[in-house]
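As a warm-up, study this chain.
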Amino acid sequence: MSPSDYPALVAIAMLAAAADGNTDATEKSAIDAVVARIGSPDVSKLAQQVSTGGLRVADLAAKLSDDKARQTAYEAALAVCNADGAASPAEQKFLDELRTALGLSGPAVDKMGQTATAMAGAVPVKSPYPTVSSSGNASNPDDLILQQAILTGALEILPDRLANIAILPLQLRLVYTIGQRHGQQLDINQVKDLAATLGLGAAAQALEGVVMKVLGGVAGGLLGGLLGGATRVASGAAVTFAATYALGHVAEQYYAQGRRISPADLKALFTRFQAEAGTLYPKVQQQVQTQAGTLNLKNILAAVKGEPA
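Now compare it with the structure written out below.
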């Protein structure tokens, strides 16, 4: 894989985010925000071409230089398409088209798809939350929120792009569990609505994570300074940690007050708790890195399902 592959890889991830054809205003806004945070004119141009239908999968696949780049493109698309649940028929059609265009086949590729589907379908909104680690207290919501923020931050460090699929299910499960503690009877759509209100669009989160991992080993100067160098890449764990931490604390207040907080006030709370998480992260960064060292796709899937690793 070479730097010449990166624009096509980013474009394929963007096409995957739009593959279901159901990108609502909230999700589109979140994806636009990701493009803005990346801060590259080249990426903005790619996003415009995607939105106008100016890019074709076959053309992008033909630009990739080797098998590593082609596998990376497929992993990236799998992660984005499965970010908010198992890929829809439209997303699966896109993945099949991409796989054909990339010339990928064989057991290893089949296994990637099976893992992505299993992880995406494992949002356990009706099962009890697993006990927190020995350093935490299952009856203390602050400990529960912190533990899950550390876990989702650790997922961002892993090089495997499929790890991003687990982030949203873990965040949604955290919200569901907090609501349940306050006697709220929730379904998955209500939980997703709260996350969407706070700007945590599934495809956008996956897109940002995938882009960071695709370009994670690269210093600045690529695509007009695509990620702002290694510092921007390293911040991915901190950003995800802060989002999960803030989401958990907002959910705690929201359900404690009987879901009577306005969307504007929810967003203000989210911003406040994100800032608090930014101050906290340096104190737990070593825990995040240590947790990442223990993770692989098997125990990530177990964590999402609430099973022993």
